[in-house]
Amino acid sequence: MSDDIQVQSTSKTPALIAREVARRRTFGIISHPDAGKTTLTEKLLLFSGAIQMAGTVKARKSGRHATSDWMEIEKQRGISVASSVMQFEFRDHIINLLDTPGHQDFSEDTYRVLTAVDSGLMVIDAAKGVEAQTIKLLDVCRMRHTPIVTFMNKLDRECRDPLELLDEVESVLKIQCAPVTWPIGMGKNFRGVYHLINDEILLFRAGEESLQGFEVIKGIDNPRLQEMFPMEMDQLRMEVELVHGASHPFSLEDFLAGKQTPVFFGSAINNFGVREILSALVDWAPAPESRDATVRTVQPTEEKFSGFVFKIQANMDPAHRDRIAFLRVCSGRFERGMKVKHLRLNREVKVSSVVTFMASSREQVEEAYAGDIIGLPNHGNMQIGDSFSEGEMLQFTGIPYFAPDFFRQVRIRNPLKIKQLQKGLQQLGEEGAVQVFKPVQGGEVVLGAVGVLQFEVVASRLLNEYGVDAVFEGTSISTARWVSSDDKKALADFEAALGHNVAYDAAGNLAYLATSGVNLRLTQERWPKLTFHATREHA
Ligand code: GDP
């Protein structure tokens, strides 16, 4: 009898896990500031019904009210939890949407968030084309061959020529474009988009916010279209011929390999083209995939739970002054109250208080599967890159630290606070809020960041959390590289010779702090036995 039960439970679980994994999509939304990422996110949530669930009756009637409800939720929750991780349902799929910080200033957070996604949604302002931050973000996606869906936004405005936009994406971002929808006019004359695969036209109406969808007319040769838009249709047919001839047809295989991006045109603010994006993510984007760990590759459908921390956010909820570690589940089934092993500390923790990020609220998690993001309360004992499992010693790899572009030295106004400063910097360094370098010889600690905003965050956290009033000053350092070598003697000689510019980071890795690009190049030439790395992985 008991054998029966045993058999039942073990035979059911793998099927359940496989089903749950298959219906998950975890993607990051990337863009240059002002391209329309926030607007699009809001509309994605609107389509999923998440905002209606959270909102009022009014929200059901009018998108406008739902929008403001959503903003209110965000405000109430302090530092936008809503915009960092959101989970919602669409067509029986569970979608995890991860925001990348939209500030001009780039932070390391942005990069690491992209290690926790399986695909990306790139939003481009069609009037501006490919912009600086998009280039940086795509570089990161390319490192992991992340499949990217592209949304050309703001077609309700005068934009650049669509073919030219595709050309720019291909040449600047080095990814093939496969247009899936094609715009009919733009700005005041924006009529809609032609779906190249389905051979149907989606008619645009400005100010449309209903969820009923837009009118669809089948077939590019439909006489109704000719009647409605005699001028535009001739132009469209010409363009479509050109597009078919000049661009790549959509290939699922190339998309999944990160070589090709399906491109959609639309207008986020008008909700136009948004449903098509969601469908593309559900139909084409990959479900959670296997992840590399130090000892082996972990499959998402394995029965045992595992995951890694990719982000730590402090004070998300000002009322609670809590710190949350964001963990991406990589395999198995997470259940509230289960015991998991924190591998770096080799310690079992019972996880009873975990949050998930339903778009409507921050809720207690009962269960989670690969691809889901769960929030673990963190009392300063978790670091970015930490892995958790049900006991097996596996450290997930590929969670990068990037060589900083900006450097500061810290001075404190009250020398008696030196201990607090050291403790604060150690913890903030471990968290990944900033990189902390201790020179081998003399000298004060050097802080490094990928975006200058990080220094402001660190200054305010030092003050609020550690009671340290710190001043940040410029330094002569302009770039850094981690250094490694099989030749122990060469490393020791290097440390001894250049001690003032050789430093250890918070995780104990050796780095060279260069005063200029030229200085770095000369040093590399002079020390041929050493390797200089622009990124390093979690130790
Ligand atoms: P983010 O910085 O990428 O999050 O961009 P936002 O979503 O905040 O949008 C930046 C600006 O562009 C805002 O003023 C939006 O109202 C506007 N915007 C967003 N989508 C559209 C669109 O489809 N058409 C037009 N005309 N404006 C848009």
Automatic annotation (TrEMBL):
It holds the Pfam family GTP_EFTU. It is found in: Cytoplasm. Residues 22-289 form the Tr-type G domain. Its main location: cytoplasm. Coiled coil: none annotated. InterPro entries: EF-G-like_DII, EFG_III/V, G_TR_CS, P-loop_NTPase, PrfC, RF3_C, RF3_dom_3_sf, RF3_GTP-bd. CDD domains: RF3, RF3_II, RF3_III. One of its GO terms (biological process) is regulation of translational termination. It comes from the Bacteria. GTP binds at residues 31-38, 99-103, 153-156. GO terms for molecular function: GTP binding; GTPase activity; guanosine tetraphosphate binding; translation release factor activity, codon nonspecific; translation release factor activity, codon specific. GO terms for cellular component: cytosol. Keywords: Cytoplasm, GTP-binding, Nucleotide-binding, Protein biosynthesis. NCBIfam families: prfC, PRK00741.1, small_GTP. Increases the formation of ribosomal termination complexes and stimulates activities of RF-1 and RF-2. It binds guanine nucleotides and has strong preference for UGA stop codons. It may interact directly with the ribosome. The stimulation of RF-1 and RF-2 is significantly reduced by GTP and GDP, but not by GMP. Belongs to the TRAFAC class translation factor GTPase superfamily. Classic translation factor GTPase family. PrfC subfamily. This is Peptide chain release factor 3. It comes from Pseudoduganella guangdongensis. The gene is prfC.
